[in-house]
Design a protein that fits this description.
139 residues, alpha+beta, five-stranded antiparallel β-sheet, 3 helices
């Protein structure tokens, strides 16, 4: 039989939709390891999604797999930053946009509270000074 007469049939790989590289499930396993460290050792961590070989389809699959949680935070500092808790508490999808609205960075942050939301202790001290002034004005 000649090779040109052999029928060629394309069979999709189970669990791999069009455009998926196969890297997203690896990232999902890494997230689970980082959540385990958060639970066991209170160790927060991040995964830089743009530094990984992920396709747009991978990112969509990962976002759909993680789902949406109850908390969504929006910050505006030289471009909008969105911090969305996933359906897995302690797993946050963090996206920073530049001034033109394009994505500047995207991370998965595994933490009880994202680092960006925490007030620096110097700011807290300045807030205490303001409160002290308000109280002193009360007489």
């Amino acid at each position: 039989m000649k090779l040109d007469r052999i029928p060629v049939v394309s069979v999709p790989v189970p669990g791999r939709a069009a455009g998926l590289s196969g890297n997203a499930p690896v990232v999902l396993r890494e997230i689970a390891q980082k959540v385990r460290r958060l639970v066991d050792a209170n160790e927060a961590s991040t995964i830089d999604l743009l530094a990984m070989p992920l396709t747009a389809a991978d990112l969509e699959w990962l976002r759909e797999s993680l789902g949406n949680g109850e908390t969504h935070i929006s910050l505006d500092a030289g471009g909008e930053s969105r911090l969305d808790e996933t359906s897995c508490p302690g797993v946050w999808w963090v996206t920073h946009h530049n001034g033109q609205g394009g994505v500047a960075s995207a991370f998965i942050e595994v933490a009880v509270v994202p680092e960006l939301v925490k007030a620096p202790i110097d700011d807290v001290a300045a807030g205490l000074e303001r409160l002290d002034l308000l109280i002193s004005d009360l007489g």
